[in-house]
Amino acid sequence: MKLVNTHILILFFLNSFSGFSQQDIWSLDRCLDSARVNNLKLRIAENQQTIISEKHDEAVSGLYPKIAIAGDYRYYTNLPYQLLPLSVFGGPDGLYKETQFGVPHVINANIQFNMNLYNPQTYGAIEVTNTMEEIAEVQYQRTEEQLFFEISNLFYNAVIIQFQIRFIDSNLVNAGQLLNIVTLLHEQKMVKSTDVDKIKLQVSQLELNKQNAASKQTQILNQLKFLMGISDQIQLVADTTLNLFQPEPVVLNETNDLKLNRLSGEVLQTELQTIRRTRIPMLSLYGVYGTTGYGYTGDPQSFLDFYPVGYAGVQLVYPLFNGFAINQKIDQKELEIQNNQYQQELIHKQTSMQVDNAILQRSIAYNMVQSAQTQIQLGEEIYKQIKLQFEQETASLTEVLLADLAVRESQQILINAIVDYFKADLELKKYPAILLLKNRL
């Protein structure tokens, strides 16, 4: 593995970095650690995991016995009628006589017991919630990845702007020195006043660029603090130490998007099995124990008597015909499973393509960073020589300005190359299940 030669950047930034020596330097890892603790999105995702776990426990509770206490009081304003055959009292067959039975006050108090011995719906719900717990865990990881991607993007933008500001500061130093030289030559009637104005305009433009960059930096840092969950009063300075590594071969494993799709397919399979199991009989055990009270208020004697009641039984429910609804549900679910398989294949191919492109982009950016650093070093040497020649009146001001422009262009090439490297690295960070050896910054 070959490390990018960063000694030029280190030497260049030594003076400008000293201004941050008393401030708190935040690395990307430190920013991510803060977000793990303080970000509210992650807290919401954690609560969602707990909710799914509770739903699983709720589904499992369907296997437990159910016990309830039931009470009932009835007052009959009209007692129910029954038809008695007259043959019971010696009358002719086929004739009946209506009569009222019972008492006006009826009280029931029971303990009821019910337990599912086999219910396919309950077992299906348990299997689904088992898979949903896995999905909730993957979704938490996905939320964490998305958050870390946003933080990394802002952090890299902050680093880029700090580089831009430091380049501007360096160019301001050069422009200030050149302005002093041109002003002195103008006083000696050796250059025109327009030459002085050109340098003043250059200094003014650099100062305006620095103000704009500082404003953007403040906005980015405020967004970064928000995602990290820290106070906006904290002075945050992004660590600009660059350790860019030549990309290495990767092994593409199952990404979280692919995991979610696969787990969704497992849920569909479980739902299909549950639908098919609805053709299997349901068996349950039940029992009741309690008392029934009968009361009468009136002549010749008022009373309220209670009598025990208790029974137990087994219930079997077998669906015979439901209008072909089960067949239609099975057909629908099989099509959903087929679409899920197509989606898995699509995600896998798309991910492979995106990863290959990101690796290629990062490799190109890596080479551009090396080339741009060499160009900056060479451009600065040329600028110093031409400025010296200008002081000795062997070079024109135009040549000095062109040399300065060449240095700035090299600086911009370096900035663009680092931006491209960061973009590619961020793209790869979308796939944390991918094994990337020593690719972190």
Roughly what fraction of the amino acids lie in strands? Answer: 15-25%
Count structural domains.
1
Q: What is the ordering of alpha helices and beta strands?
A: HEHHEEEEHHEHEEHH
Name of the CATH architecture = Up-down Bundle
Query: Overall pLDDT, averaged?
Result: 83
User: What's the total helix number?
Assistant: 8
In angstroms, what is the radius of gyration? 41 Å
CATH topology grouping:
Outer membrane efflux proteins (OEP)
N-to-C CA distance: 15 Å
Low-confidence stretches: 1-22, 433-441
Q: Tell me the structural class.
A: alpha+beta
Principal-axes shape call: elongated
Summary keywords:
441 residues; Outer membrane efflux proteins (OEP); 4-stranded antiparallel β-sheet; two-stranded parallel ribbon; 15% strand; disordered N terminus; disordered C terminus
